[in-house]
Design a protein that fits this description.
disordered N terminus, mainly alpha, 4 helices, about 80 residues
Amino acid sequence: MKKYGTIRSRDIFEDICAGLGCDVTSSIKYGSNLAKAEELLKTMDLKQYPLRQISDIYNYIFGETKVFESHEEAKKAIDEK
């Protein structure tokens, strides 16, 4: 698995941006970054983030509205993508 940069915060959007080497959230969806963001999200320790943030990044990356009730539910949904 390729590593993408250094995780630097407890904000999932910022951490994905850092992992991709980009500075702004909108870059997550630009070009090949989207596929890389999906891959990175699958490797992250989701328990480090509030469920609301995980739901928000899921909606942003996958374009589907989900409200997760547990970290296990979130991990399963992300892994199935």
